[in-house]
Design a protein that fits this description.
The protein is of the alpha/beta class and 471 residues long. The protein contains 15 helices and 11 strands.
């Protein structure tokens, strides 16, 4: 054995203890760590792009990394990171994720690990938490992008089946042009259209309802009536990234009865609201969708990367993703082997962090995270609306606050970007830019399990400070 490998084998306990010490220190300082470290700290240091001939061993490499780059790590796991839609890691999920790397299981159904059984049980518990029926099968994937890809890939297979065409075997050209209809398709769905060979140009934007991001069912029906017979996928939002708007799913389902189409619901973070009796009615009808996306590393607060794709069409899904190899299990119609259900042939034990979190916190714990984040988002929105320097661009529908600077003269985009840059330098709260109804805006998305009312006050203080700061 190489001497450094032998050294690290002998020092395994010390290496793990050192790692625990670094992690403990990081978590202890999370409240004080900048949500956006200085740009200089985010750069690679000279020489660190070169491979050494002789290694230094794990302990030395760990200490060197932490010394050089700890300041370049943001507090994205903390309670005031409101950028994008970024959750944290609950203690149970973090502990599980450490174990995932330690036990290093390939959770494919290989009949030599319990990982596949736990993944299936996690899917079952998640369906129960979110009120989805047993008819749905589910698999873990890396994120909402891949979950949308899987749902739309099955959706591409479906119109072929109606026409006696096996798209997975014959290719999408055998099916011909596909139309994809949405009012506010997420960028990951647009990317999926390219990857699937359907093409970005297949996306037809349907009008939204007045003063809303929700699709206008009348406009959708008008388009469907004018394109009867065209292979069609409808991408519904539950909810949108700017305002957490939910499409009227019962209305879309009624249209599906008259104009058959594949209904995919992108519920990356909004779907988790179904665990709250207060907000579950917003998802009425999603249990009849053809495919659904739910992200776990957002509002379920497990570490990156983790999402779940749900589908009612197991046989179609296996037609698309079946894998044939002499040394792996042959394709069989079963919901517990992602080898034949998703793009990946092998991957880590991705289900364990969510499994352990559900065991640790149960239905009531997940409900608390959702309802507390919504309450705090409403508090933030109310304060911004009452302030002199900010205005809401849209009502606070759930857990995202979409707002803008008030009384701006000149270039509103430049003013917005300067404000966000000052906010980043101040390091207390992280928000991200957006565009809403043609207006430059700012988003604050609350999904972290640790966020408390005190964090909202700190965020508001920082925003007011940065607004008053000289340009």
């Amino acid at each position: 054995m190489h001497p450094r490998l032998q050294q690290d084998l002998d020092q395994f306990p010390q290496i793990l203890e050192r790692t625990r010490h670094l992690a403990e220190g990081f978590l202890a300082g999370l409240q004080q760590r900048p949500v956006c470290p200085p740009l200089a700290s985010q750069q690679l240091q000279p020489g660190d792009d070169r491979l050494a001939d002789e290694g230094d061993g794990a302990l030395a490499a760990l200490d060197d990394f932490w010394l050089r780059y700890a300041e370049g790590l943001s507090a994205s796991a903390g309670p005031r990171y409101f950028g994008f839609v970024t959750g944290g890691s609950t203690p149970a999920a973090l502990a599980a994720d450490w174990l995932v790397s330690t036990v290093d299981q390939n959770s494919q159904l290989s009949h030599d690990t319990v990982a596949a059984a736990i993944e299936l049980a996690t899917i079952t518990q998640l369906k129960n938490l979110l009120g989805l029926p047993e008819v749905f099968n589910g698999s873990f994937v890396s994120g909402a992008t891949m979950a949308n890809f899987v749902g739309m890939a099955i959706g591409r297979q479906w119109p072929g089946q109606q026409r006696g065409i096996d798209v997975a075997e014959q290719g999408v050209t055998a099916l011909g042009p596909v139309q994809v209809l949405s009012a506010n398709a997420h960028s990951s769905s647009v990317k999926a259209l390219s990857m699937l060979g359907i093409g970005r140009d297949a996306l037809k934007i349907i009008d939204s309802l007045p003063n809303s991001e929700a699709i206008d069912p009348v406009a959708l029906e008008r388009h469907l009536a004018a394109s009867i017979g065209a292979p069609t996928l409808v991408l519904a939002s539950a909810g949108t990234v700017n305002t957490v708007t939910f499409d009227d799913l019962p209305h879309l389902l009624a249209l599906r009865e008259r104009y058959p189409f594949w209904l995919h619901v992108d519920a990356a973070f909004g779907g988790v609201a179904a665990c709250s009796p207060r907000y579950a009615p917003r998802l009425t009808g999603w249990e009849q969708a053809d495919s659904i996306t739910v992200d776990a590393h957002k509002w379920l607060n497990v570490p990156y990367d983790s999402a779940i794709q749900f589908s009612r069409h197991l046989a179609l899904q296996m037609q698309v993703f079946q894998n044939h190899s002499a040394y792996l299990e042959a394709p069989t119609l079963r919901p517990d082997n992602y080898l034949h259900l998703t793009p990946e042939n092998s991957r880590r034990f991705r289900a364990l962090p969510l499994w352990l979190a559900l065991k640790a916190y149960g239905r009531s714990g997940m409900q608390d995270m959702v309802e507390r984040n919504v309450q705090l988002a409403q508090l933030l929105g109310t304060a911004l609306a009452a302030s002199e320097g900010f205005r809401l661009l849209a009502p606070v529908n759930l857990n995202v606050v979409c707002f803008a600077l008030k009384n701006i003269e000149g270039d509103a985009v430049a003013a917005r970007d300067r404000f966000i840059a000052r906010l980043d330098r101040h390091g207390v709260v992280r928000c991200t830019p957006t565009l809403y109804n043609g207006q430059p805006g700012i988003r604050a998305a609350l999904v972290n399990w640790m966020t408390q009312e005190s964090d909202i006050h700190l965020a508001l203080e920082s925003m007011q400070h940065c607004l008053a700061e000289p340009h």
